[in-house]
Amino acid sequence: MHPEVAAYVLGVLDDADLQAFERHLDSCERCQRELKELQDVPDLLDDLKLQPSASEDDDPPISMSR
Ligand SMILES: [Zn+2]
């Protein structure tokens, strides 16, 4: 797959790359299909991110003393 597709879905492309990719997307059926598949991924990434960050937040019970 083109790495730009994932970057586009994750919203990490800067303006120039974004415009270039959207222009490419217009003429690239493969990227259009990959884009549709990848649009489900951010949800999965959110789930993965929540697990470690949640355990960090829950970690210090002592900070309650503030
Ligand atoms: Zn493409």
Automatic annotation (TrEMBL):
Residues 46-66 are annotated as: Disordered. Keywords: Transcription, Transcription regulation. The keyword Thylakoid does not apply. Gene3D superfamilies: Anti-sigma factor, zinc-finger domain. The keyword Transcription applies. Residues 6-32 form the Putative zinc-finger domain. This is Putative zinc-finger domain-containing protein. It comes from Nonomuraea recticatena.
